[in-house]
């Protein structure tokens, strides 16, 4: 009987089926191959568990900002040689190489080096991020939003029952008793700080009743204030539509949040003084303004009264007709001049008309008749030629005064005839 021929296995995982599966060892070997091809990587986090067993060390590292943890191990004293004396709670960077134990199918993170993150490293990292964000223009004064003169409702993001919360609420209430707060209590340090503060900021920014948002925290060590230099939180503040006030730590503390916020307060107490006016100072300003306004009105009324008195004392106001007196004689003189000029012109024109009338009269037929001449007519016809009439014909003679009927008894020739 011949031996059973080995079946041909699918070359890739996506070609496997229920009828043609991979043996478990094949899957494990391929998985091990791919996992162990990954290069070593440096990661950063907080050491939350540390267990030494002889030369070997077992630990758990948690992300600084998120709820993500990773179990790791180190063999042969690698941890003690690179980071002697390191303790739980320290912020570390670890060089990790993923490995898979084939028989048990267990994934392990082999740590070949572990180093604590010192304050100098943290400060250098913060400054690099600060310069990068500044180059983007996130700190530009042109991006800063003006705070309202009198906010009706203030959003406050701070730790629960913290001194920062009490300072802001107490001092703001003393300055302006009518102020209202919308408080969001969040973690202000540790890995939950960034997501909780960012979520509270988004919630308050979306509320149209909130006029300004204050992010407040008391002082602390540099590690405690790291969330307020986180890039995610800083960019969220830069994108907020509502003005944001940063009140983190004390005067010497300077997280990146101070640079991107619309206003930086040195302390939470200072934030309360910066966001609301002092009611006593405002009352004093109002009183001063009312006094200044009253004084200005009184001065204006007094000046106008003096002006009216001065106007009333003028001669023209006491005797209004005096305005007309200087012009009355001149008007009479001009009227007389106008009358004489009109009379002279009328006389001149009358003389001219008379001369024209005399000339017209001298040329008039009547004037000719007055000098003894007569006009001979036959009916309406004027007879100018003696040969135009016959002897015995009746004619009429027009003289200067009247008309004479005559009968022609004879005629003579033209001019010069005897």
Total domain modules: 4
Main sheet overview = 5 strands, antiparallel
The CATH architecture assignment of the largest domain turns out to be: 3-Layer(aba) Sandwich
Pick out the low-confidence regions.
none
Assigned CATH superfamily of the largest domain? Succinyl-CoA synthetase domains
What is the highest CATH level, the class of the largest domain?
Alpha Beta
Mean model confidence by pLDDT: 86
The computed structural class is: alpha/beta
Helical stretch count? 12
* Rg over C-alpha atoms, rounded to the nearest angstrom: 62 Å
Order of helices and strands: HEEEHEEHEHEHEHEHEHHHHHEEEE
Number of strands: 14
Short description:
With 418 residues, the protein is an alpha/beta fold. The chain has twelve helices and 14 strands. It is elongated, with a radius of gyration of 62 Å.
What does this structure look like?
This protein has 418 residues and is an alpha/beta fold. It has four domains: 13-117, OB fold (Dihydrolipoamide Acetyltransferase, E2P) (Beta Barrel), CATH 2.40.50.140; 123-144 and 151-277, Succinyl-CoA synthetase domains (Rossmann fold, 3-Layer(aba) Sandwich); 278-313; 367-407, no CATH class. It is built from twelve helices and 14 strands. The protein has a five-stranded antiparallel β-sheet with strand order 3-2-1-4-5. The chain has a five-stranded parallel β-sheet with strand order 7-6-8-9-10, sandwiched between helices. The longest helix has 38 residues, at 325-362. The protein is elongated, with a radius of gyration of 62 Å. The model has no long low-confidence stretch (mean pLDDT 86).
């Amino acid at each position: 009987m011949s031996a059973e021929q080995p079946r041909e296995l699918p070359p890739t995982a996506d070609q496997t089926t229920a009828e043609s599966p991979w043996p478990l060892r094949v899957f494990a070997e391929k998985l091990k191959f791919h996992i162990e091809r990954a290069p070593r990587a440096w990661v950063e986090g907080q050491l939350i568990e540390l267990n030494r067993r002889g030369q070997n060390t077992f630990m758990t590292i948690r992300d600084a900002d998120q709820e993500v943890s990773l179990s790791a191990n180190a063999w042969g004293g690698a941890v003690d040689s690179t980071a002697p004396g390191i303790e739980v709670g320290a912020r570390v960077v670890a060089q990790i190489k993923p490995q898979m134990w084939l028989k048990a199918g267990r994934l392990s993170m082999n740590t070949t080096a572990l180093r604590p993150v010192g304050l100098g490293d943290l400060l250098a990292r913060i400054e690099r991020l600060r310069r990068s964000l500044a180059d983007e223009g996130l700190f530009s004064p042109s991006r800063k939003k003006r705070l309202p003169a009198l906010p009706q409702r203030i959003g406050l993001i701070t730790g629960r029952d913290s001194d920062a919360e009490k300072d802001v609420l107490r001092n703001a209430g003393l300055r302006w008793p009518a102020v209202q707060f919308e408080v969001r209590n969040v973690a202000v340090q540790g890995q939950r700080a960034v997501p909780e503060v960012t979520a509270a900021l988004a919630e308050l920014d979306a509320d149209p009743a909130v006029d300004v948002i204050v992010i407040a925290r008391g002082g602390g060590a540099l590690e405690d204030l790291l969330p307020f230099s986180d890039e995610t939180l800083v960019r969220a503040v830069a994108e907020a539509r509502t003005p944001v006030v940063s009140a983190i730590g004390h005067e010497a503390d300077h997280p990146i949040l101070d640079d991107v916020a619309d206003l930086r307060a040195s302390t939470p107490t200072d934030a309360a003084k910066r966001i609301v006016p002092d009611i006593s100072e405002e009352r004093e300003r109002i009183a001063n303004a009312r006094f200044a306004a009253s004084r200005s009105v009184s001065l204006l009324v007094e000046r106008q009264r003096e002006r009216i008195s001065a106007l009333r004392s003028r001669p023209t106001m006491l005797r209004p007709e005096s305005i007309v007196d200087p012009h009355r004689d001149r008007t009479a003189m001009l009227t007389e001049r106008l009358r004489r000029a009109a009379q002279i012109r009328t006389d001149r024109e009358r003389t001219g008309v008379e001369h024209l009338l005399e000339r017209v009269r001298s040329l008039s037929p009547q004037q000719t008749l007055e000098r003894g001449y007569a006009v001979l007519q036959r009916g309406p016809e004027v007879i100018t030629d003696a040969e135009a009439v016959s002897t015995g014909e009746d004619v009429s003679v027009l003289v200067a005064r009247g008309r004479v009927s005559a009968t022609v008894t004879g005629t003579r020739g033209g001019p010069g005839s005897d």
